[in-house]
Amino acid sequence: MRRTRLVALVLVLALGLLAAGCLDGTETTATADKVVGVLPTTTTTTGDLPALELMGDAAAGKAVFTSQSCGSCHVLAASGTSGAVGPNLDESKPSTELVVTRVTEGKSLMPAFGETLTAQQIADVAAYVSESTGG
Ligand code: HEC
Questions:
Q1: Burial class of residue 80 (count of CB atoms within 10 Å of its CB; 0-12, 13-18, 19+)
Q2: CA 80/CA 28 separation, integer angstroms
Q3: Is the pLDDT of residue 135 over 60?
Q4: For a tag on the chain, would you pick the N or C end, based on fewer CB atoms within 10 A?
């Protein structure tokens, strides 16, 4: 008699668990397994620095450096300038990319020339500065 009652109790408990969805194994979790949208394939953006797309002419860039008075703020031995407001370009040896970025956008005391110079002039002065400093 006692044993039958115990078995009945266990059955009732098991049914209760099943009804609650704990033992039927159909529980789902919210894990994302799919990326929606398009992932970028390139990491460089040159949209706002058009001069990066152009070949600079260092000889033409020398004239830009002089006419824009870059030398009033920068040391550049190739132009014989000794400005001390900005970095000494012979020492910092900037890459063409850095010259294009600074000249186009400016930074702190460095004025932006993106509105006053053409993309070609910026590419030229960048070629001149980086070639003459070995940057
Ligand atoms: C009014 C002064 C001034 C003029 C004019 C000026 N610059 Fe600058 N330039 C600066 C200053 C200041 C910085 C430093 C900006 C910073 O990083 O905070 C700088 C930074 C730079 C840099 C980055 C150097 C480095 O190693 O970080 C380059 C390259 C540069 N200038 C090129 C030029 C060129 C080319 C011109 C002319 C088209 C020019 N600059 C005109 C003041 C000037």
A1: exposed
A2: 73
A3: yes
A4: N
Q: What is the pLDDT of residue 112?
A: 97
HSE on the CB side for 46, CA within 13 Å?
11
- Please state, as a whole number, how many other Cβ atoms lie within 10 Å of the Cβ of residue 68: 16
Contact residues of ligand 1, CB 6 A cut-off: 65, 68-70, 72-74, 85-87, 92, 94, 98-99, 102-103, 107-111, 113, 125, 129
Q: Where are the extended beta strands (E) located within 5-112? A: 75-76, 81-82
Q: Tell me the pLDDT tens digit for each residue of 50-85.
A: 999 999 999 999 999 999 999 999 999 999 999 999
Ligand 1 atom nearest 126 alpha carbon: 35
Cα of 103 vs centre of ligand 1, distance in Å, is: 7
Give me the domains of the chain, ranges plus CATH numbers: 50-133 (1.10.760.10)
